[in-house]
From TrEMBL:
This is Guanine deaminase. The keyword Translocase does not apply. It comes from the Bacteria. Residues 57-435 form the Amidohydrolase-related domain. It comes from Roseivivax lentus. Keywords: Hydrolase. Belongs to the metallo-dependent hydrolases superfamily. ATZ/TRZ family. Gene3D superfamilies: Metal-dependent hydrolases (3.20.20.140), Urease, subunit C, domain 1 (2.30.40.10). One of its GO terms (molecular function) is hydrolase activity, acting on carbon-nitrogen (but not peptide) bonds.
Length: 504
């Protein structure tokens, strides 16, 4: 790519590192930023000039936690706790062909790019286990759009109904018999498939890379988690898990392990600098200190945590402990969009109900830093993306300053976080290539994707109708049991773990 220069001229740069904004030109060589200079700076002869006048330039937002399969499930649920979402998972996320997976990944990526996001950590679900063909289709979906992704197959070797103490036993027969017969794939099958996925990887690792997603600690055996740990070490892979997401999980962990979920994972050797915990709503202070010591990251998903009633993560305490925190949307099955501007605003706003002194709330610069450099570190790409600086990949978003969101332009950082709804996104560059220009995709046909999505959803929903009826019939048992497990939660000031009647 040497000699392939582009220069962005006339834009207003949002410099998150310096907490400032100023006019600047940006020189790009191939996929990499080479120089940031004053307006009119010299550029190599023949460089392509991109006019950025009237645009605010910020680093591409990085989504630290999503689920590509959820793109086809947006709007399916409403008053669902996390456990009701998991109860619905067989019909909202099951029955996909490999082509459906590619369509879902493409749709997820398309929404993120339209909303200013250039890279994501995607825990994609394949049932009963991940496959090289399926993961290749998902990777191709991201590549079609031109977006970066870390793809972690979402896996479990304990079924959801066996993961919550007492839940299976209270289901009325014959539901219990049918649901009990639905076993999860054994751990050695998951691990063998993941090994095949990694060894047959065909994507450029800068663009789409593999990771591991043993989904929820309560749904994974010790043998499975040890296997994931070893596979990750052997191949340098990241691991992402949903950790301490709901109060039900925190209480269930106390009963099953007599320790916290994070402490159990640490005892198994999983928590290190390649480990990302999604949510972490119910982490204790000791969990946070241990995870910071190990160099792990947390993906904070305030929208999903609110929608599912999971609670409000104590992110200021995480940051004070030294933990790296990124921001995510979670999947559209739970939140129900892929809007990182909204996720940033929610992260800022929910911080105001956790701690009282306003100086401990998250301000806009800190939220911007978490949604860019913080999330990039969570993806394991902290030295390549998340900043507009020489040597970093040219992943940038151009916001139209003629948008009503910037009239008047009083304070760019405050307005990106507190005013922006993604409607001002005019162009998105990823790796030096404009993948969105004038709000139109340059690499694929969105109208064709809409038609593909409609056809896939109609077929999947018809095929899953019987499964849907089966799980909807037991939803109220799941709901009542889980409420009974932790009746006084959620309250982030009083984690149920500290006073659960059965915790020892
Ligand atoms: Zn999730």
């Amino acid at each position: 790519m040497t000699g392939d220069f582009t220069v962005l001229r006339g834009g207003l740069l949002l410099d998150i590192g310096r907490q400032d904004s100023y006019p600047a030109d940006i020189l790009i060589e191939g996929d990499t930023i080479r120089e940031i200079g004053a307006p009119g700076m010299a550029a190599p002869e023949g460089a392509t000039v991109e006019d950025a006048s009237g645009r605010l330039i910020l680093p591409g937002l990085v989504n630290a936690h999503t689920h590509g399969h959820g793109a086809l499930a947006k709007g399916l649920g409403d008053r669902w706790s996390l456990e009701l979402l998991l109860n619905a998972a067989p019909w909202t996320g099951g029955g996909f062909t490999h082509e459906d997976k590619r369509i879902a990944a493409r749709l997820n990526a398309a929404e993120m790019v339209l909303k200013g996001c250039t890279a994501a950590y995607d825990m994609f679900f394949e049932f009963p286990t991940a496959t090289p063909e399926g993961i290749a289709a998902i990777g191709a979906g991201y590549r079609d759009v031109g977006m970066r992704a870390v793809i972690a197959p979402m896996m479990a070797d304990i079924p959801f109904f066996r993961s919550i103490p007492g839940l299976m036993d209270l289901l009325p027969a014959p539901h219990r018999d049918r649901i009990a017969a639905m076993e999860a794939a054994p751990f050695d099958t998951h691990l063998a498939q993941c090994r095949r996925i990694v060894e047959s990887w065909a994507f450029d690792l800068d663009a789409v890379r593999p990771a591991l997603g043993p989904t929820i600690p309560l749904m994974c055996t010790d043998d499975f988690l040890r296997g994931c740990r070893d596979l990750a070490r052997d191949h340098g892979l990241g691991i992402q898990m949903h950790l301490a997401e709901s109060p039900v999980q925190a209480v269930s962990a106390a009963r099953r392990y007599e320790t916290t979920l994070a402490a159990r994972l640490d005892a198994l050797g999983l928590i290190d600098a390649r480990f990302t915990a999604a949510h972490g709503v119910w982490l204790t202070d000791a969990d946070m200190a241990m995870m910071a010591e190990r160099g792990a990251s947390v993906a904070h998903n305030p929208g999903s945590n609110l929608r599912l009633g999971s609670g409000i993560a104590r992110v200021r305490a995480m940051r004070d402990a030294g933990l790296c925190v990124g921001i995510g949307t979670d999947g559209s099955g739970s939140s129900d969009n892929q809007n990182m501007f909204e996720a940033m605003r929610m992260a800022a706003f929910v911080s105001r109900v956790v701690t009282k002194p306003p100086e401990t709330w998250f301000g806009t610069w800190e939220v911007l830093e978490m949604a860019t450099a913080g999330s990039a570190q969570a993806l394991g790409m902290g030295d390549a993306i998340g900043r507009i600086a020489p040597g970093y990949k040219a992943d940038m978003v151009l916001l139209d300053l003629a948008s009503v969101n910037y009239v008047p332009l009083n304070n760019p950082a405050n307005q990106v976080v507190n005013c922006e709804d993604s409607s001002a996104v005019s162009a998105v560059m990823i790796g030096g290539r404009m993948v969105l220009r004038d709000r139109r995709f340059t690499g694929f046909d969105f109208d064709k994707l809409r038609a593909d999505v409609a056809a896939a959803v109609a077929r999947i929903q018809a095929a899953n109708a019987g499964t849907r009826a089966e799980f909807e019939a037991v939803a109220r048992f799941v709901s009542h049991h889980c409420v009974g497990l932790c009746p006084d939660a959620p309250n982030p000031q009083n984690p149920p773990l500290r006073h659960a009647p059965h915790a020892r």
